[in-house]
């Protein structure tokens, strides 16, 4: 009989469904094939004109029906598509899921195209006064709903028949991992047998790009887009803005086994620690990231020696990769030079609110397939960062456990530990 | 029976048009016939409840930190500081470093002048996407983005007050406030956390914050009326207010061991998502009332009713079906504070329990008096558009 409780006596949390969408394609099969062949999804921006922009490349998802319809519709479609794949794989009822929903998604704002359309539908007075007057005459709720922070989750709850009040959350670039953590905690507390955790981000608008650009966060390697995201390289110059979604069906191991579901992996630990140093920079000693990694290990009941692979946050910004190296070296000591650590972002870019969920999905597949996806564009190693980044080519390896890191703007750090088998 | 893992409230930070802090709010709200603070001209035809004078330096010591935020984040950081002070946690490095945080947030303020200039230019240009790039790349203040990001209210609380155990931001209007309190309480009850800062803030004095309601015609227009009396009046019934509410929730054992004053115990926190287009709101409110484990006998209820016509009518009808309930629609006096509405309701409920007295009626026409000591007080937030929640707050 399988062990159903973890080292702290809590229900073990299994993954029974995985779904993913990135610029590399829809679904696990296409994504995994591209990811393990070292293919980049980064490409020139075509969704809007790039006049005046310093960065003209991204990992946008341009092949969905909502790709040109604005951030809210695209984020919904991304979330729905990944969740549909995950729930189908789990074998649960796709219209009556029967557990809570946790959605990591970007903050919403009235889209500029809507703003222009509202404003120019009238001629009287100006500015906000005109917008407000036009707004109160609208007969449809479509535009309104794109501005409500809870609306995407509300629609998803309808679509999948999730239970209760859905939670929409943001911990910046750690959001996707936080959505998974909330699901894990709800199952451990015995509030539910299953949860649907989704990270989705379709918010790569011109304004989003400009905002990150003004903070000097983005790569400007426009001429060779596939080469722009180069985590841990000496000439890395920023992240590549990207879109995507990842969804996991989480289930108590007991419930999954009872209904004969295939167990795809175990969510064995979650750890978090906030940084109080600066709004965009992390504490120079890396202590919050170190504490988040250690908290995840402790939560999983594993020692440093028991982690086989690290799915890095690895954004390709000068700051993140340096800090991540510092914190991993501190936690793992001398072993750090010989343990595989790769960054999916080298191929899919930084999917922001979705990143933690997508990278958890890829971490689980890494263990199932016994293949570690590479860090591509690793042509010019940073001598200050000595890591085995699985350079440029995938590697066959037995991976029993993965640590996946997510470190956010605003100091929100979340780490997940996953395992192939219940330990 | 009290248990060591009960959730208790040991800190309250409040800001609204009525003032700041639990004492100021109690003093004002316990005055019979208190008149609301209203601003009817600045955003006409909309009336709002404006922020009081605030000396930000009292909770955000560094000017540099203040400059990195707009009013919404300052307000939240300020209210969070009040709650931490009240709980005796501010400045205690050990307690702050192990403190968890759940913030209910919307978005921050956009640059209205830049937006207005872009809109004005759009009247004479067809290449609007290029116009957008041209203006945004040259006129946006780089750090403004950080002042707009939802999760940066929590980020600023970490930076200013050093709360760093964990940091989560929930989004989704009133429902975010409900989930924040519900999740925080569940973490404490299960032993996942010993002390949590939870709350939110809303800064309504910005056109985009009004637009967020008015794209569906939710705002009340014309002469101001109490929250229960806006049915049939011009507009959609919501009068918004600027404010913030943060609570320090603590495991009873943790609070007792450090000898802190306990305002109240936080009992059941319940939430739901009625599919309102299918007419489920009335039955969901009834179900929430039954799940909240209401005590026998008369009960004071701090209602977060927004005034939105359909939602407020449903809530009012539900109370009328429970004759023992004496509701107080506090938005009559504070306005609707969106993400902060539910934490505010819980805070006012805790104050009444602590002071062993009910609030007088806020609207003599629609509310009934409550005599005696309220041993338990209900807090509600029925979303103006979606999501609902309630909590029962009990004597410590």
Describe the structure.
With 423 residues, chain A is α/β, with parallel strands linked by helices. Chain A folds into two domains: 13-108 and 148-419, 3-Layer(aba) Sandwich (Peroxisomal Thiolase, Chain A, domain 1), CATH 3.40.47.10; 114-145, no CATH class. Chain A is built from 13 helices and 15 strands. In chain A, α2 (71-90) runs parallel beside α6 and α7 crosses α13 (355-369). Chain B is an alpha/beta fold. Chain B has helices at 22-29, 63-67, 71-86, 93-97, 112-122, 128-139, 144-148, 152-161, 173-189, 207-214, 252-257, 281-291, 309-320, 331-334, 341-355; strands spanning 7-16, 19-20, 100-104, 168-171, 195-202, 243-251, 264-272, 299-303, 325-329, 376-382, 388-394. Chain B starts with 6 loop residues before the first strand and ends with a strand. The interface between A and B is large, with 80 and 82 residues. β6 (167-170) of chain A pairs antiparallel with β4 (168-171) of chain B.
How are the SSEs placed, and which strands pair?
The complex is a heterodimer of chains A (423) and B (396).
Chain A: E1 13-22, E2 25-26, H1 28-36, E3 43-44, E4 57-58, H2 71-90, E5 101-104, H3 112-119, H4 127-136, H5 142-146, H6 151-160, E6 167-170, H7 175-188, E7 194-201, H8 206-214, E8 244-252, H9 253-258, E9 265-274, H10 287-300, E10 309-311, H11 318-332, E11 341-342, H12 345-348, H13 355-369, E12 371-372, E13 395-396, E14 401-407, E15 412-419
Parallel strand pairs in A: 5-6, 5-7, 10-11, 10-14
Antiparallel strand pairs in A: 1-2, 1-8, 1-9, 3-4, 7-8, 9-15, 12-13, 14-15
Chain B: E1 7-16, E2 19-20, H1 22-29, H2 63-67, H3 71-86, H4 93-97, E3 100-104, H5 112-122, H6 128-139, H7 144-148, H8 152-161, E4 168-171, H9 173-189, E5 195-202, H10 207-214, E6 243-251, H11 252-257, E7 264-272, H12 281-291, E8 299-303, H13 309-320, E9 325-329, H14 331-334, H15 341-355, E10 376-382, E11 388-394
């Amino acid at each position: 009989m399988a062990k159903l409780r973890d080292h702290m006596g809590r229900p073990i949390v299994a993954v029974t469904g995985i779904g993913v969408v990135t610029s590399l394609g829809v679904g696990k099969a296409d994504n995994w094939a591209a990811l393990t062949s070292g293919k980049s999804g980064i490409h020139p921006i075509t969704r809007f004109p790039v006049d005046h922009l310093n960065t003209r490349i991204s990992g946008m998802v341009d092949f969905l029906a909502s790709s040109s319809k604005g951030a809210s519709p695209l984020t919904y479609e991304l979330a729905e598509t990944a969740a549909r794949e995950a729930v189908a794989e789990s074998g649960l009822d796709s219209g009556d899921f029967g557990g809570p929903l946790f959605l990591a998604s970007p903050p919403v704002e009235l889209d500029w195209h809507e703003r222009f359309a509202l404003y120019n539908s009238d001629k009287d007075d100006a500015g906000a006064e005109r917008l407000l007057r036009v707004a109160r005459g609208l007969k449809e709720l479509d535009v309104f709903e794109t501005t409500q922070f809870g609306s995407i989750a509300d629609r998803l709850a309808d679509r999948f028949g999730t239970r209760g009040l859905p939670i929409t959350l943001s911990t910046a670039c750690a959001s996707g991992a936080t959505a998974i953590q909330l699901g894990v905690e709800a199952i451990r507390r015995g509030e539910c047998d299953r949860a649907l955790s989704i990270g989705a981000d379709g918010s790569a608008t011109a304004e989003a790009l400009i905002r990150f650009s003004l903070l000097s966060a983005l790569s400007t390697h426009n001429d060779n887009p596939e080469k722009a995201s180069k985590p841990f390289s000496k000439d890395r110059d920023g992240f590549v803005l990207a879109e995507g979604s990842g969804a996991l069906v989480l289930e108590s191991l007991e419930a999954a086994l009872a209904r004969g579901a295939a167990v795809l992996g175990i969510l064995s630990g979650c750890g978090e620690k906030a940084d109080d140093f600066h709004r965009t920079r992390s504490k120079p000693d890396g202590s919050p990231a170190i504490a988040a990694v250690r908290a995840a290990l402790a939560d999983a009941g594993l020692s440093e020696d028991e982690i086989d692979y690290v799915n890095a946050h690895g954004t390709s910004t000068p700051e993140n990769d340096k800090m991540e190296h510092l914190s991993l070296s501190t936690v793992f000591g001398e072993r750090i030079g010989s343990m595989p650590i790769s960054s999916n972002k080298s191929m899919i870019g930084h999917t922001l609110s979705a990143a933690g969920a997508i990278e958890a999905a890829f971490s689980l597949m890494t263990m199932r397939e016994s293949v570690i996806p590479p860090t591509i564009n690793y042509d010019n190693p940073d001598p200050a960062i000595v890591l085995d980044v699985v350079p440029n080519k995938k590697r066959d390896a037995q991976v029993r456990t993965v640590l996946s890191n997510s470190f956010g703007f605003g100091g929100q750090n979340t780490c997940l530990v996953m395992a192939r088998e219940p330990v | 029976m009290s248990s060591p893992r009960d959730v208790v409230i040991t800190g309250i930070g409040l800001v609204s048009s009525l003032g700041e802090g639990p004492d100021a709010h109690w003093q004002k709200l316990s005055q019979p016939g208190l008149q609301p603070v209203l601003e009817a001209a600045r955003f006409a035809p909309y009336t709002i409840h404006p922020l009081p004078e605030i000396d930000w330096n009292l909770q955000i010591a560094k000017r540099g930190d203040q400059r990195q935020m707009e009013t919404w984040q300052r307000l939240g950081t300020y209210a969070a500081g009040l709650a931490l002070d009240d709980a005796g946690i501010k400045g205690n490095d050990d307690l702050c470093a192990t403190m968890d945080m759940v913030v209910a947030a919307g978005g921050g303020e956009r640059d209205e002048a830049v937006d207005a200039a872009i809109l004005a230019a759009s009247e004479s240009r067809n290449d609007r996407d290029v116009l957008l790039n041209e203006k945004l790349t040259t006129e946006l203040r780089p750090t403004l983005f950080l002042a707009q990001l939802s999760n940066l209210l929590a980020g600023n609380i970490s930076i200013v007050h050093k709360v760093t155990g964990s940091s989560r931001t929930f989004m989704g209007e009133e429902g975010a406030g409900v989930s924040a309190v519900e999740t925080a309480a569940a973490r404490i009850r299960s032993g996942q956390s010993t002390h949590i800062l939870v709350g939110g803030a809303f800064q309504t004095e910005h056109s985009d914050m009004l637009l967020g309601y008015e794209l569906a015609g939710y705002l009340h227009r014309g002469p101001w009326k109490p929250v229960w009396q806006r049915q049939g009046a011009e507009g959609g019934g919501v009068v918004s207010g600027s404010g913030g509410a943060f609570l320090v929730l603590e495991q009873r054992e943790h609070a007792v061991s450090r000898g802190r004053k306990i305002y109240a115990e936080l009992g059941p926190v319940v939430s739901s998502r009625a599919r309102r287009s299918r007419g489920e709101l009335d039955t969901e409110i009834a179900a929430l009332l039954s799940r909240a484990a209401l005590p026998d006998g008369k009960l004071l209820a701090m209602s977060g009713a927004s005034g939105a016509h359909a939602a407020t009518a449903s809530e009012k009808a539900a109370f009328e079906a429970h004759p023992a309930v004496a509701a107080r629609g506090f938005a009559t006096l504070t306005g609707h504070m969106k993400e902060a509405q539910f934490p505010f309701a819980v805070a006012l409920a805790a104050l009444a329990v602590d002071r062993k007295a009910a609030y007088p009626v806020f609207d003599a026409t629609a509310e009934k008096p409550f005599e005696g000591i309220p041993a338990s007080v209900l807090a509600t937030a029925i979303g103006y558009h979606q999501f609902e929640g309630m909590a029962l707050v009990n004597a410590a």
